[in-house]
Amino acid sequence: MEQRNERADWLAAAFDELSIAGFQQVDKPDPDVPRRRAYRRLRNRVVSSGIAAAVLVAVGGVSLVRPVAAPPPTDVIAPSPVTDFPSVQMESLAAGPTSQSPTSLPSGPSTPTATPSASPPTDRPTSSRPTPRPKPTPTRYVDLSISAPRSLTLEPSDTAYTGTLDVTMGNAATRSYDAGDLIVVLPVEATISLKGTNIGGCFHQGQTDDLKTMTCTGDGPIPLGGTRSYQIAVTVNIAPGGPARTLTGFALTVRANVGGKFPADRSPGDNTAATTLQLPAS
């Protein structure tokens, strides 16, 4: 009976000691926990600084590698339990790796840039290509003209009206052979005769209800700055009698013909002469 009481007392005493130790652990935490936590923060800060320095060195082109600080030995942690955090020692440890800034790394020599000169060297030619010469302005041109009365009164005969039209051609160009073709437009009732004018044959070109067109080869060359006159016989195949009549549309146009080509005239406004044919009453 006494042995059983002693064992129960021993168990109760052990339980009391365990309870007291647990309460003491809750009331008084392990003083090494803050120290180990500070050490882990310090180690992470050192590793981050080393990585940033390596990145800056790689970007700047400088082959400099900052060694990562080794973790402090485990015996730094004091075995004696203390309740106060050693702020002085942590500040000195923190100030060590952070005092060297990655931005203080030596930079390489800057590459000098040469400023280009605005003017080329005087001992060199500016261009090896010859300066192109301007094309000469042509001095030869075509400038023909023709003139005739604006109105021609025809005389009645037995079966028609007849008359003579005075025509003058001029050459104000620089070519003596620019006596060209003669384009004749007539009312369908009218005809012309170029006999005695040295103008070549005429060729029919077309006809409408009111007008007909033909082309006649030109005379010989008109002298430069000179003129040449012609008399062209005109006949209107209408029987005389009745009231007076007027026929319009009769026109003569001169154009240059050089080897079968027709160069443009310098002043085409004077290349056509229009004449109204007057048929008097009988």
Would you kindly provide a brief summary of this structure?
24% of the residues lie in helices and 26% in strands.
What would you say this structure looks like, in words?
This protein is of the alpha+beta class and 282 residues long. The chain is built from three helices and eleven strands. The protein has helices at residues 2-27, 32-60, 87-98, and strands spanning 144-147, 151-153, 155-156, 161-171, 181-187, 190-193, 202-207, 211-216, 227-236, 245-255, 272-279. A six-stranded mixed sheet has the order 2-11-10-5-8-7, with no helix packed on it. Strands 1, 3, 4, 6 and 9 form a five-stranded antiparallel sheet that branches. A hairpin with a 4-residue loop joins strand 3 and strand 4 (161-171). The longest helix is centred in the N-terminal third of the chain and has 29 residues, at 32-60. It is rod-shaped, with a radius of gyration of 62 Å. Residues 61-68 and 75-106 have low confidence and may be disordered.
